[in-house]
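for the recovery benchmark. C-alpha cells below, seq after
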C-alpha cells in the first residue's frame, strides 16, 4: 500500500482552479512536514508549497497568492488549492512527506493548464 495517495489532477483552462489531495497514514501525517512539488520534463523537481505539522506554511514565489496548502487532521490529508491557474503551472505534481531521515514521495498527478 502506498504511503501517500494523491488525487485531483486534470485538465483546466487558464484562470481555472483545481484542488489536489494527498492522503497519508496517521503516523506519517502527524510526524512529517508535508509538501507539494512539481516537475516538468527536462527540469528539476521544485517546491511548490509545504506545511509543517504545526501548520506553518511556505510557498514558492510563483504561486504566492494563488495557491493555498492546508491540512485536515481528521482525514490525515493535505490539500493544495490552486486558483488562477496559468499555463506555466502545467506539471506533474508530487506529494512529499519528510521528517529527519524519513522521506516519502507520492506517485504524482498530472496538472495541465491549457485552453
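predicted aa per position
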Amino acid at each position: 500500500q502506498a504511503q501517500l495517495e494523491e488525487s485531483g489532477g486534470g485538465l483546466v483552462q487558464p484562470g481555472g482552479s483545481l484542488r489536489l489531495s494527498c492522503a497519508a497514514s496517521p503516523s506519517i501525517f502527524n510526524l512529517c512536514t508535508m509538501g507539494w512539488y512539481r516537475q516538468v520534463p527536462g527540469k528539476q523537481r521544485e517546491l511548490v508549497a509545504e506545511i509543517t505539522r504545526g501548520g506553518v506554511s511556505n510557498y514558492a514565489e510563483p504561486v504566492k497568492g494563488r495557491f493555498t496548502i492546508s491540512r485536515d487532521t481528521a482525514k490525515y490529508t493535505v490539500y493544495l488549492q490552486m486558483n488562477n491557474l496559468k499555463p506555466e503551472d502545467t506539471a506533474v505534481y508530487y506529494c512529499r512527506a519528510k521528517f529527519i531521515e524519513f522521506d516519502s514521495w507520492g506517485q504524482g498527478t498530472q496538472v495541465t493548464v491549457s485552453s
